[in-house]
Structure formats: structure tokens, C-alpha cells
Write a structure and sequence with these properties.
Length: 184
Amino acid sequence: MAALPEIYATGEALRIDGEEIAYDAITHVAYVRQVRRASGAIIDVVRRFELGVEGGRRTVRLDGAKVDAEAKQELWARLVEISQRAIEPRLRNQSLERVQRYGEAVAIARLELDRAGFAVRGALPRRRRFAWSEHGRTFFSTDRIRVTVRADGKPERKLIDIPTEDANAVLLPRLMAACAEAFG
């Protein structure tokens, strides 16, 4: 069996195979778990965890048949838990502060958030800009973040799906809820 990376977390840093990454140096986080199938049977589960740091990124890939599936899942779940506890709150608070205190727009994946609302960047049929009062829900859906809207008195509908492997997409559910509460 192939060796899995050694992961160790402290109050200030994450250590991956001896490389220490300070939480304060992390600029983005992304992770994904994708099931690969062939003829209906699961052939592999790809798990990837990525941290952006000044001048680069650190990616941990947990896939391949030579690694015990249970060990891969356990390590990936531990990385996600560390991220949700020690990394994501700081990044989310930084983004919220940029919008709330400084009036800046924050771009995450194809979304741009500001005090007035949020917009989808790039090609999108119909309307591209929404007020916070029109925000429906933002939630994890398999390997993506789904954003819904309640516009024009119509029932809630899907606006966009953003892959969780996009930088900081995993921040969106709580960040958009906080923005909707603050500005909606």
C-alpha cells in the first residue's frame, strides 16, 4: 500500500508531511470528493484538498487503488474538519469584513458579493444581479455548492452550481447567509 501523508494540526498551523503551513498564510481552501464509476460500479473515489498560500499552493491528493479506501476517507475527513474549524472561519470573516467594513466586492469562483447583493460573472441567461433579499439558500450538494434565489415572487430556483474545488467556494454557504442577514 502507498503511504498517506502525515497530517498534524496545531492552534496556529497545519503540518503536511513535515511542511508547516501557518493558518494566517492561507489565502484559499478547496476540497472535493468525487466518486468515479464504470458500468455502475464504483472504481475509485477521488479526494483532493488544496490550500493556497503566498506564492503557490499545496495539494493533497488521496486517490488511487494502492491506498486503503477507509484510510483515505478518514484522512480526507480530518483535513476537511481542520479546514472547517481553523481555516474557513478566518477566510470567511476576512471576506465579510471586506464587504461590510470597507465596501469592497469579493469574488469567489463565478460569484461576486458586495453590500447591494451578488452577481454571477460570465455568461448567464436572463438576469445576472440579485439583491440580498432575493438570496434563497446556499448549501453543499455532493461535490458542489448550490446557490438558489427567490426572485420576482417566484418559487426558489437554482441559480448556479459551483464546484467545491474552486478556490474558497466552500466558504459560500455561511458567507452568503451572513451577507443576506447583514444587508438583506
